[in-house]
Design goal:
Length: 172
Amino acid sequence: TPFNNTFLQLTHGISASLKSEKSATLLGYSRQLNTANKIDAGYGLQRSARTTLIALHRNNINDEFSIEPSIQIQFQKSYRSILPGLKFFKTLPTGNWHIAQVNAGVRLRISDAIIPTIGMQYDQWIGGISYDINLSNLRVASAGRGSLEFYIGTILKKIPAIQPTPYCRPIY
């Protein structure tokens, strides 16, 4: 086809979280590391990098299930998007040493799209699939196809500082 909309997007970010036994709240920031060129009928169009702010609150319903409302605000040049969302998580049995969860949810890009998503976490690795279903007049530009997105990532955990052992010199 004359339209090639497939590209690799690399993103970096940072977040801070506050956890308790029953819930967790996270505030985060991310920014694309690269921009993408879109080729339309021989014309190269540069897409600008996107910045995202996110806030979410996960509440444990019981030992197996949790629910997570969230909101994202995205900035891309002069464009702004607000994406409220809701995810459900199911913890899988793995023993005491690993974390495994599956999740399913939906986000709404206000006045533009609805985005169902499914994913999984195993220890620090996360991945999933989402599909943007266009609701606005932009569906004409994408021939009503929407956008299929895959993601994979890792969660870097805080590494505790190593305390030096006190030096003890025996007295002879």
